[in-house]
Design brief:
The complex is a heterodimer of chains A (281) and B (281).
Chain A lengths: L2 H9 L7 E12 L9 E12 L3 E5 L6 H8 L7 E6 L2 E2 L10 E4 L11 H14 L7 H14 L15 H13 L5 E5 L7 H18 L2 E5 L3 H7 L2 E5 L6 E6 L14 H17 L1
Parallel strand pairs in A: 3-8, 3-9, 6-7, 7-8
Antiparallel strand pairs in A: 1-2, 1-4, 4-5, 9-10
Helix pairs in contact in A: 3-4, 3-5, 7-8
Chain B lengths: L1 H13 L7 H27 L10 H46 L1 H16 L6 H11 L6 H24 L3 H9 L4 H39 L4 H10 L3 H29 L12
Helix pairs in contact in B: 1-2, 3-4, 3-6, 3-8, 3-10, 5-6, 6-8, 8-9, 8-10, 9-10
The chains are: A alpha/beta (281), B mainly alpha (281).
Chain lengths: 281, 281
């Protein structure tokens, strides 16, 4: 059923670049261009490369610039210095392809007056009108149906967001970011506002979707266990100014499941990460 | 509690075939009760204090007068109503058309906001004589146009501010999402801002009609052109207080009716959230 999704992302890899997301000595200073003396260095000298198909999480104390980092990758914010590239193209350059990047926010952004299916189709409508994608709408309509079943929302296509639980709404947002088949998925604490059980469930589903669609994922979280459970690598940012303090390789076997959390290695890695984290404060 | 009591009573009579939720029934019951008590209090005060009905008519006196002058009211209403209604619709259309460029461009908004807020704050009704003066320059035989101008002038600014607030009320995540998809300004309006602003615009419309009515009636007060406003002015001039009350009652009922119609349209159009019958000033 998910063949189309899988194939598309595989063939999309044709002109291969090693690093899908790449931060090259990036600084972000707020208020740098203003006359005021109060400029705040949010991020300093960030070097980070995420390889194709890799799942990388960024953790750090609140206010360390995690979201700023993600917003720069999404092209919402400019880097003050250095460059952020997606597939080898600077995100601020006109050659940057918007359809390569999907963004999932902490809170669901589903529009209340659109059905679930129409919400999922929104990015495609906009991209299509602007000539950023070429496929027919009917292709994406089929895809929307596939995504609904991929994220476990079969039968909810015609429901309105306020008829869904928070977890289900977040699944809509995830589908929305996947509809145009971006190679990169940027996720900003997407499960931060959900209860523990829903969060665990969606973590498993995210891993399954990642496996089936072969996306490159940059994932922001403040939950260290979640980071260990999901990632290939975990990047630890230090607070003010945000700098890469540590990068921890997570060598847990894949596919990961319910029992991964109980494994000795998981507990070790989690303890190690907590230790790193504590040393920052 | 009152609601459930009334419901039991109602179910007893109808055999439970109609059911309205308790909450709404409670509100309706209390509103009805409040109205009856107020009228009873009014009648009681005029009777107990044996006030001169010429100066302080009771509700019965007002209703009798209303029946007596009904034909005169019916003759005078069309002029006033058309000034209020046309002025209202014109102000509504203008408020939306003007709000779009203001919201689309921060610069224009920042440049004009002091003027808009300032004009909204002055007692615009105080400009009535001036408006009439200017219209009389244009054409004395079409002096009634001043009432239309007054309706627009008084109703426009609160509706403009409502439209601006409405179009601007999208949350940051949604704005970022639109930016990631590369939505143009027009697409922002088309897909998000118009629908998102509807609740604000409807609130503005509820206040707007009442204001347009005030503008038209006061315009007639001052210009003396034929209509229900000039009828009220002459009634007071001839100390027919009961007549003035009767006219005000009719105007109040018409305004309430229009606000109710706006509310019903709103509840139909904005199905995704509950509407309020009172607009916020």
């Amino acid at each position: 059923m998910n063949n189309k999704i899988e194939q598309q992302s595989r063939t999309g890899d044709a002109e291969s670049v090693d690093h899908t997301i790449s931060f090259d000595s990036v600084d972000k200073v707020y208020g740098a261009d203003a006359v005021a003396e109060e400029s705040v260095v949010a991020l300093q000298d960030i070097d980070l490369d995420v390889e194709r198909g890799e799942f990388v999480s960024v953790v750090g104390p609140s206010g360390c610039g995690k979201t700023t980092l993600l917003h720069m990758a999404a092209g919402i914010l400019d880097a003050t210095d250095g460059s952020v590239q997606i597939n080898g193209v600077d995100v601020q350059s006109p050659r940057h392809e918007r359809k390569e990047v999907g963004l999932v926010f902490q809170h669901p952004v589903a529009l209340e007056w659109r059905t679930v299916r129409k919400n999922i189709m929104l990015p495609v409508q906009i991209l299509k009108e602007n000539g950023a994608i070429n496929e027919d709408m009917s292709y994406y309509e089929d895809r929307a149906d596939e995504l609904l079943s991929l994220v476990g929302l079969e039968g909810f296509g015609d429901s309105y967001p306020n008829e869904l639980s928070g977890g289900m709404q977040q699944r809509v947002t995830i589908s929305q970011s996947l509809i145009y088949n971006p190679s990169v998925l940027l996720m900003d604490e997407p499960f931060g506002s959900l209860d523990a059980m829903t969060k665990d469930e969606l973590n498993l589903e995210l891993l399954r979707i990642w496996r089936e669609t072969a996306k490159t994922i940059l994932f922001i979280t403040h939950d260290l266990d979640e980071a260990v459970f999901l990632s290939d690598r975990v990047v630890v940012l230090s607070p003010r100014p945000g700098e890469v303090a540590d990068v921890i390789d997570i060598d847990l076997d894949r596919p990961r499941g319910e029992d991964t959390r109980g494994s000795t290695r998981f507990v070790e890695l989690s303890a190690e990460l907590h230790q790193h984290f504590k040393s920052l404060q | 509690m009152i609601g459930s009591a009334v419901r039991k009573l109602g179910d007893g009579i109808t055999g439970g075939r109609f059911s309205i939720d308790d909450d709404r029934l409670t509100r309706w019951t209390l509103s009805g009760l409040g109205l009856v008590l107020l009228i009873a209090f009014w009648e009681a005060v005029t009777t107990v204090l044996s006030l001169n009905p010429k100066y302080f008519p009771g509700p019965m006196g007002v209703v009798n007068e209303l029946i007596r002058i009904w034909p005169a009211i019916v003759a005078a209403l069309p002029n006033t109503l058309s000034a209020a209604l046309v002025g209202y619709l014109l102000a509504l259309a203008l408020s939306i058309v003007i709000a779009i460029p203001l919201v689309a461009s921060d610069r224009i908004l920042n440049a004009l906001m002091p003027f808009i807020i300032g004009t909204n704050t002055v007692p615009r009704i105080a400009m009535t004589p001036l408006v009439i003066y200017w219209v009389s320059f244009y054409s004395v035989s079409m002096l009634y146009l001043a009432n239309y101008v007054m309706a627009v002038w008084v109703a426009f600014f609160p509706m403009l501010i409502a439209a601006i607030d409405g179009f601007r009320s999208i949350d940051e995540d949604t704005e970022n999402m639109l930016e990631v998809y590369g939505a143009t300004t027009w697409q922002e309006f088309k897909y998000v801002r118009f629908k998102n602003g509807l609740p604000f615009i409807f609130d503005g419309m509820k206040i707007g009609f009442v204001l347009a009515m005030i503008g038209a009636v006061v315009g007639e007060f001052v210009s003396g052109t034929f209509g229900i406003g000039s009828q009220a002015a002459s009634a007071i001039g001839r100390t027919s207080i009961a007549r003035a009350f009767a006219i005000v009652l009719v105007l109040g009922l018409i305004s309430t009716g229009v606000v109710l119609i706006v509310y019903l349209i709103e509840s139909k159009m904005i199905f995704w959230r509950e509407s309020s019958i009172m607009g916020a000033e």
